[in-house]
Design a protein that fits this description.
Radius of gyration: 24 Å
Largest sheet: none
Order of helices and strands: HHHHHHHHHHHHHHHHHHHHHHHHH
């Protein structure tokens, strides 16, 4: 009963509140059915249940619950594989299911910030996939087994490498987009093509290549609409809105976020809704609407704390700290920064650490503590290039303010001009520079590096950071 029930739901792809309620109402029997499936070699059923429980965990933030529930099933599968009387067919199927489950487990550990466990799960998934009997199914599983590893690379801060990996994935998925055995025939590999496009959009945003990111997001949205998939579309719209926010179009960012939230709420997707609330809160911060921002961000933070989702917690805390600074409460901002640092540091390196250090610097600057301000901004710069480009540029702008406060206005203006010229600088930071140094914009800002055409924006940043560290 449960095997058929789960199978029908999984094929539907878009979950909703009724489905979630029905699944969780009788989880005890579902777990027994899961064990029964392993014991009787019903591996399709075992996989369907695993996939559905992964989605439950991912939607409700029940990461630890899913990991605890999966552990005994994975052990039972390992015993089935090792048993001498297991048939070749069942052993192959058990390996396949266990490879998938390690794939899910890696993603859940990464959400919790448990990067060592995530890497172990990725390696296990890859070993199991390679050991499958030669088949088209095996080749596809080998490809997908390393997918969480690419996101782990992003989490650890090597965004440029992750971008190259995701570009390779896109090429592979494009070849099989109409003939991918691990997806329903009507979808093919397009589901994974959309995932790869979204990953590239996130990478380009982090690298500060916003025009390229926008092109990826438009492709993602069109493809999701074409295949009728809406749950991941919601997340994609939130990430799309982040890029648009950095470009300064807050009205469009708000519209994209509200559109995504309409999907999240219809599916009862708690985690996606929290991501949407975080995005609305961040937009409100940029608009200077501190009270509205805190309302959205506190809702997101509560879900982050309950689930243990590191990215959700750190992002919400960093944005809340900025709102507190805007409202003039530097003591509260510092407390929020301390919590963000504790969460971000659960495992290092971490792509989200630089924004935390940046916010510490802004807290110190608000208190006119220039030595501490300088120290925090330099620590944030020390994370480059393994952090979002905008955070590096904001830290450089912070150093310009330190130089100005110390009396070296000419040096401050030079740094500020280079930041304003960098195409990865956020619209908000560029506007702040314009308020401090209007002469820079009176002279014209091209939005391109100030040196010759052979020096990239990232190299320009590196040279500027090196010069500041030397002084």
């Amino acid at each position: 009963f449960f095997g058929d029930f789960i199978s029908r739901l999984t094929k539907g792809m878009n979950y909703n509140n009724a489905v979630m309620d029905e699944l969780m109402a009788d989880f005890g029997n579902l777990e027994l059915a899961w064990y029964w499936g392993v014991e009787h070699g019903r591996m399709v059923m075992v996989l369907e249940i695993a996939i559905s429980l992964y989605f439950i965990a991912d939607m409700l933030g029940r990461y630890r619950f899913a990991l605890e529930s999966s552990t005994p099933i994975m052990a039972a599968l390992a015993r089935t594989i090792a048993a001498p009387d297991t048939s070749t067919e069942v052993r192959h199927s058990a390996r396949f299911v266990l490879a998938w489950m390690n794939n899910f487990v890696a993603s859940l550990h990464n959400q919790l910030g448990q990067t060592v466990q995530a890497r172990d799960a990725v390696e296990s998934s890859c070993r199991l996939a390679v050991g499958l009997n030669a088949s088209r199914e095996r080749d596809e599983m080998v490809l997908l087994a390393a997918w969480p590893g690419a996101w782990l690379t992003f989490t650890l801060g090597d965004v440029a490498w992750a971008q190259r990996v995701f570009a390779g994935y896109l090429a592979s998925f494009e070849v099989a987009k109409h003939d991918f055995t691990l997806c329903p025939p009507e979808i093919g590999g397009r589901f994974w093509v959309a995932h790869a496009l979204a990953a590239l959009g996130s990478c380009e945003t982090a690298l500060g290549n916003y025009a390229a990111a926008m092109a990826w997001w438009r492709q993602v949205v069109a493809l999701r609409a074409d295949i009728g998939e809406q749950r991941f579309l919601a997340f994609n719209l939130f990430d799309y809105a982040e890029t648009v926010t950095l470009l300064g179009d807050l009205a469009e960012a708000q519209e994209l976020t509200q559109r995504g939230l309409s999907f999240s709420k219809s599916f009862g997707d708690i985690m996606s809704t929290a991501e949407g609330n975080q995005r609305l809160g961040t937009i409100a911060v940029e608009q200077g609407q501190w009270v509205i921002a805190e309302t959205y961000l506190n809702q997101a933070l509560a879900v982050g704390r309950q689930s243990g989702n590191r990215g959700l917690m750190v992002g919400s805390l960093v944005a809340l700290a900025k709102a507190a600074l805007g409202a003039g409460d530097s003591a509260r901002a510092l407390a929020l920064c301390n919590e963000a640092l504790a969460v971000a540091s659960v495992s290092l390196p971490y792509v989200g650490l630089a924004p935390v250090l940046l916010r510490f610097g802004e807290c110190a600057l608000a208190e006119n503590d220039l030595p501490a301000t300088r120290r925090y901004f330099l620590q944030a710069l020390g994370q480059a290039p393994n952090c979002p480009a905008w955070s590096t540029l904001d830290a450089l702008w912070g150093m310009a303010q330190v130089l100005a406060a110390g009396g070296d206005v000419a040096a401050a203006a030079q740094v500020a001009r280079q930041v304003a010229q960098d195409p990865a600088t956020s619209a908000a930071t560029r506007a702040a520079i314009g308020r401090w140094f209007p002469a820079i914009f009176a002279q014209g800002v091209s939005g391109a590096p100030v040196t010759d055409d052979h020096v990239t924006a990232e190299q320009e940043r590196s040279l500027l950071i090196a010069a500041l560290v030397d002084t």
